[in-house]
Structure formats: C-alpha cells, structure tokens
Specification:
Distance between the termini: 47 Å
Radius of gyration: 20 Å
Number of strands: 16
C-alpha cells in the first residue's frame, strides 16, 4: 500500500473489512446551508467545493430511524442477498475477489452489506471500496487506478454499487466517466472496466441490477454521516492535493450518534438462512420491461411537477424518499410533496418539514412516495 499523501484508504467508524474509503480527509471549512445554496445557484461555486456542518440528529429523528430499521431490516437483508445472487450469477464464483465499488456515500452502507452477504452467504472472496463520484465532475479516476493497479483487482470482476436511483443523473455520470476512463485504458493496452451498476431501489429505471423498483424508506437513506462511517460526502476543492483521492471531512463530533456499524449488524443478522440464488433469466426478462416502465413513469412525473410548480431547473426536483430527505437535510427546500401523509415511510420527512417550516402538499398521483423541491433564490437574494 502506498504511503503517498491522499492515497491511503480510510475506514471511518467502519471495520476495515466492511469498507475502505478511497477519500482524502481534509480540515473542514464549513458554510451554512443557506450560504452554500446561494453560491450554488449564483454559479459562484460548484456544490462539490463546499460543505456544511452536519447537525446531530434529534432524539425524535433517531427514534424514527430506529423504527424504520426495525421495520425494514429483514426486507433489506433479503434484497441484499438477492443482489448478491445476481452478481454471482453474472460475474462468477471464483477465488479471485469480486470488487465492490460503492459510490460514496449513499452507496456505502449497501456496499458493506453486499460484501458481508457475498463472503458469508456466497462464500465468495470480496473487497469493498467506496469512492467519489460528482455530478458534472465525474468519478475519481485516481481511486479507480488504485483499485486496479495498486490493489490489483481484476477489472472484469468490479461492480459499482449505489443505494437507489432517482432521475438517473449519477447513473449517466458513471457511464460517461467510465467511457472516458476505458478509452484511456484501451490506449494504454489495459482491459476495460465493465459498466455495471447495482442498487437496492431502482425507481428511476436506470440501473443494471436492482432488488426492487419500489420507493420505500431504506433506513440508511434517512441519515447522513451517522450511518456512513462518520464520513462526509465527497469534496473537491483547493484543499485536496493534486493526485490525491477526492476529499472528505470526518465527523468525529457525531460519534455518540453513530449507527454505522450497528445498522450493518442489524441487517446482516437476517442473512442467516436466506437463499441468495435467483433465476437470472426470469429476473432479467422481468426487470428489463419493468425498468423501461419505471423510467418512463419517472420522466412523465418530472415533466408534470416542473409544469405544476414552475420549476425551470430539473436539478431542483428531487424525487423519491431518499432524495427528498437529502434536500430536507442538506439544501434549502421550498416544498415537500408526499403521496400520502399517513404513510409511515414519510413520517421523518414530515418531522423535518415541520422543523423547517416547509409547506407539505399531498400528491396521490406520484409514482413515488415523496419529492422535495429546492427553493429558487429570488433576484434580491443574489449578489
């Protein structure tokens, strides 16, 4: 393992076997959420250049997370094992490890669970690395080089992991980034990396493998650092040395609220006795048709919401429970849309909306449970 600055894996509060982050810790230069939003919308800075201090989740909010974990741990365990079976069917059982490359940080807990399922239930050697991908900036190719050239994992045994899809922005970013990366590898006489994305919930219909097309409250999607090894989302700014992995902040101040390891244990306890095999032919035929329906349903609804709420920037519409939650926690929301206020999967969103005085509108016509719309700054708020 190299000792060069910025090229040493970290694991945050995870056990090293569960996850190695290929990220460079940097000193925090926190901005308020409001100032960060102002800079994003005025073009003063890209979102990846800035970060805000994550607030500790309230006791009430953590109790809702715990309730969701109790409700869905067994379901998530079954879905993780199903994904593991699909991956083994396609990539093949071998003494050569499968390389899980999760997209930090939403994909990180799923990648850690998949590694446990593949090793424990599938008896398949497996390594899990979590790396940065940033909209409009691409995937961290330094991290990919590390996985392939320093660790020596076989490119044909890599698969990329995320927790969910929504509009498909990150899926498209991944495919475009890998197309460029593979062109460079081909020019250097190296084998390409397959473009394979596996997720739990594919509500956008854009992944290659998925366990479900349902929009449900995947518990890890309702917390930030405290279910992701105390590691922040990735950062690329002048604090990250040239040639280093993308940056991150370690939120040690949130350690007393950390659920990262406990969440993995709670879900993986249910792996015992689960059959990870899956009929690949049947699943593929079914999934292909459903994926197309999901994609069209998402596009149609996005057009409807943009028209109904006069949203000119599609990036300001965040569909699905997890994406809606991220807006409520990390952006400046203008409106929260829910399909049914009485559904337990949106209870945490209603709590956040109440705390932030965000209006809530029921939309029974949505094909997903929730959607947040980011507030567009008025001309007076801009410099």
């Amino acid at each position: 393992m190299t000792s060069m600055i910025g090229l040493t894996p970290i694991h945050g509060s995870y056990c090293p076997d569960d996850c190695q982050f290929l990220l460079t810790p940097i000193s925090p230069r926190f901005l308020s959420i409001e100032e960060k939003e102002r800079r994003i919308q005025t073009g003063q800075a890209h979102y990846s250049e800035m970060i805000h201090r994550e607030a500790a989740p309230s006791a009430r909010y953590l109790s809702l997370f715990d309730a969701l974990s109790d409700r869905y741990a067994q379901r998530l365990a079954q879905e993780v094992c199903s994904l593991a079976g699909r991956l083994l069917a396609d990539i093949g059982h071998s003494q050569a490890p499968i390389g899980l490359v999760s997209l930090a940080r939403a994909g990180t807990p799923v990648g850690a669970l998949l590694r446990r399922a593949l090793v424990g239930q599938g008896q398949q050697p497996c390594e899990h690395y979590s790396i940065s991908i940033i909209r409009d900036r691409g995937i961290d190719t330094q991290a990919l080089d590390y996985i392939l050239d320093t660790v020596g994992l076989a490119p044909e045994r890599l698969v990329f992991i995320d927790a969910w899809t929504a509009k498909g922005v990150i899926t498209r970013e991944l495919r475009a980034s890998l197309a460029r990366y593979n062109a460079e590898r081909k020019a250097a006489g190296k084998s390409p990396v397959p473009v394979r994305l596996a997720v739990i919930s594919d509500i956008g219909g854009t992944a290659d493998y998925s366990a479900t097309f349902d929009d449900y409250a995947i518990p890890s999607g309702v917390l930030n650092a405290t279910v992701s090894g105390l590691v922040s989302r990735s950062v690329v700014n002048d604090q990250v040395p040239a040639g280093a992995f993308h940056g991150c902040v370690i939120h040690d101040d949130l350690a007393e609220h950390d659920r990262s390891h406990a969440f993995l244990d709670q879900v993986s306890t249910h792996f015992t006795g689960l059959d990870s095999s899956l009929s690949r032919a049947t699943a593929t035929a079914t999934a292909t048709a459903e994926r197309a329906r999901q994609r069209q349903s998402m596009l149609t609804m996005l057009d409807t919401l943009a028209r109904d709420y006069q949203v000119s920037d599609i990036n300001h519409i965040k569909p699905g429970i997890a994406e809606a939650t991220r807006v409520m926690l990390r952006r400046v929301p203008a409106l929260l849309l829910v399909r049914d206020k009485r559904h337990p999967d949106v209870e945490h969103l209603l709590l956040l909306a109440g705390e932030k005085a965000v209006a809530v509108v029921e939309r029974p016509d949505m094909p997903f449970h929730a959607c947040s719309i980011i507030k567009t700054l008025t001309a007076e708020a801009r410099p």
